[in-house]
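Thread: "does anyone have the structure for this chain?"

Original post by V.I.:
We have the sequence but no experimental structure in hand. Need at least a predicted one for the grant figures.
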Amino acid sequence: MKSKLLCRELREEVLETALRLPEFGLVWMAGGTACARDPETGYIITTPSGLKYDLLTPEDMIVVDMDMNVIEGSCRPSVATNLWIEIYKRRGDVNAIIHTHSPYATAFSVINEPIPIITETQANWLRKPVQVAQYAHVEDDHFVTAPADALGDGYAVLLGQHGPIIVGANLEETLERSITLEEAAKTYSISKTLGNPIHFDEKQALRSYEYYTNRYGQK
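Reply from O.Q.:
Generated one for you, tokens below.
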């Protein structure tokens, strides 16, 4: 019989998502983060800090409130929990956040270069270019505000000299968006060595995004 846990299903989904990140080369060892907000309680469920995902259970996921109080869990939460909360406070449409160290996207954070929209698939998922937030150490005052400002109403941002943050309405959507971002960064990197990549303009990207979001598939 399963023990009683707050937000058990969402805790299981957070862990399952975290376990899939290495599968797509987005993190390794204990890197990165998966977290989600429960729409009913407002609680945030996050992976613990510095522990390998394949050794964890749903009980190890940490439940915090929007004031960073630990509601349930014996481990320390993600060291960037204050940043995840700031994004959730600003974005009512966001209920999931994934932070990765995917190499191609991270490379653009190292050279401080935004990733433009270059493919239709990228436009479908990201809608707008991915900006780079000013570098900040996790203990710096602007660690929370700089990435949240750079993210704005977008779906991804690059932490300066660190790696991407991706957001979405749920974990499944956010995982696919994370994979799409890394593939776009890889394609952009390769295309820059071949010539001058053609960028989608804002109108083209928005048209593609709106079509995919509202009329593609079985919608």
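V.I.: this helps a lot. The CA atoms of residues 22 and 28 lie 6 Å apart.
O.Q.: and Residues 171-194 form the longest helix (24 residues).
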